Amino acid sequence: EPEVTQTPSHQVTQMGQEVILRCVPISNHLYFYWYRQILGQKVEFLVSFYNNEISEKSEIFDDQFSVERPDGSNFTLKIRSTKLEDSAMYFCASRGIEDKEAFFGQGTRLTVV
Amino acid sequence: EDKVVQSPLSLVVHEGDTVTLNCSYEVTNFRSLLWYKQEKKAPTFLFMLTSSGIEKKSGRLSSILDKKELFSILNITATQTGDSAVYLCAVERGTYKYIFGTGTRLKVLA
Q1: Is some CB atom of chain B closer than 8 A to the CB atom of A104?
Q2: Disulfide check for B98: which of A18, B62, B68, B90 has CB 3.0–4.6 Å away?
Q3: Min Cα separation A82/chain B (Å)
Q4: What's the gap in Å between the CA of B42 and the closest CA on chain A?
Q5: Residue A102: its pLDDT value, please?
Q6: If you ran DSSP here, which 8-state letter would residue A9 be given?
Q7: Residue A40: what pLDDT?
Q8: Does the beta-carbon distance from A31 to B50 stay under 8 Å?
Q9: Secondary structure (3-state) at B22
Q10: Contacts of B92 in chain A (CB under 8 A)
């Protein structure tokens, strides 16, 4: 069964460092999303991406964040200068044209120390 | 401001019990409501509801949407320990965004 894959599963980084979280959405999907979940809190929308551009972003998604689809398969989230409060589980999701539900990857746990 | 509210926040039941989880929403440009189950990591899809009054069913799980009163319920009958998880309600707003509730943490005791 097709699935969304994310790497790495866990990343520890020092405050102020740049991190890139990688996702391979389900092939032939066209809508891509990043969500995050701080421990014990709800899943929060960060950004959606369609047709090679950002469709919508939340107030969390400030200038420190960027997304890219560098080739036909990867979808990346970059955090330029990490802060302690960026520590969270980051989920990538994708959706096809015909689907209504988004399929989620297993997440990358980011720990900023 | 768009919001999705789930209740209860947590629930402890015994195997065999029936549970009802609630989700109410106030979201502009509503397209659909989805239920996900989150055990350890990724939310896994359960149901998508777009029309009022039509029950979706999968085994012991069922769900229904009321678009007039702006809520949905998820029922689980004959609960098993494997049903222990966080159940997430998400509302699709427009094409590009899902708004999640805080989730209901269900624990089923043997």
Answers
A1: yes
A2: B90
A3: 22
A4: 5
A5: 87
A6: S
A7: 86
A8: no
A9: strand
A10: 100
